[in-house]
Request: fold
Amino acid sequence: MVEQASLSSCEYEKDIDEFIKSGFTKKKPHIVDCSSIDGSPFIMECKLSNIIELGRKPGSGNLILGEVLCFHINNDILERQKEELTQKFNANIADINRAQLSNNSMSNRVFNNP
Reply:
């Protein structure tokens, strides 16, 4: 997928479909009026806010700013993250014990809640 994305970032004439050039399949998004990549594990649907030209020399590029309207995340990614976060939480919470109303103990030290 990385190589395909690289192909889609090349400059093409307006009548050239970058999806065809890169071998991606189009997917209709839920909110915005443009195509997204079918099978992508992570998609952000964004509304264009501003395009800032970073220079006038070849290769200068543009900074494109947008408002994120929607995320699409593959369930496998979410499940892996959930499992990893749960393991980290369980490992860390075992070190924090409620001691008194305004004090907590953490393994070998006591600290006050603000």
Remarks:
- The CA atoms of residues 6 and 71 lie 22 Å apart.
- The helical segments are 2-8, 18-22, 75-93.
- The longest strand covers residues 42-53.
